[in-house]
Write a structure and sequence with these properties.
Layout (H helix, E strand, L loop, with lengths): L11 H4 L2 H5 L4 E5 L3 H13 L3 E6 L2 H10 L4 E5 L1 E2 L3 E2 L1 H10 L3 E5 L15 E3 L4 H11 L1
Parallel strand pairs: 1-2, 1-3, 3-6, 6-7
Antiparallel strand pairs: 4-5
Helix pairs in contact: 4-5
């Protein structure tokens, strides 16, 4: 897992200022094993004013990130390195009440129970498809 951004501690004034929280950028976790897909997706999300809290590439990293990091939304590659299903990640995110979408080039019929019915962002996708899915789910 590679942290993307680490914010500095808030001053006492900021933590008491309700407007700070009203205008803060949504935090998102990216679970993606392909470097090129990650770079393009990260650039699009930054342009859309999301705060990238981290990246996970393997199932073990994804499970740890999904269980421990503080974020409001996740984009999850349905199949990670070694052909491993991200289904355990879906279980964790659902248990935590964190919305997520699946990014995949595979058809939904191939997903396990924890991933079926989740909003799909089919690969390949562009800015238009990403903003459409985020408007629905995030």
């Amino acid at each position: 897992m590679f942290p993307i951004h680490s914010s500095q501690p808030l001053s006492e004034r900021q933590t008491n200022d309700a407007s700070y929280f009203a205008h803060r950028r949504p935090r998102i976790l990216l679970i993606e094993d392909d470097d090129l897909v990650f770079e393009v997706l990260a650039d699009m999300l930054v342009e859309l004013d999301y705060d990238l809290v981290g990246r996970a590439e393997t199932l073990d990293e994804a499970i740890e990130a999904a269980a421990t990091l503080d974020f409001e939304f996740a984009i999850v590659d349905a199949v990670l390195k070694g052909g491993r299903s991200a289904e355990p990640v879906g279980s964790i995110l659902r248990a935590r009440g964190i919305p997520f979408v699946l990014s995949s080039g595979y058809q939904e019929e191939l997903f396990g129970d924890e991933l079926r019915g989740v909003q799909l962002l089919p690969k390949p996708y562009g800015f238009k498809e990403l903003t459409r899915v985020l408007a629905i789910v995030a």
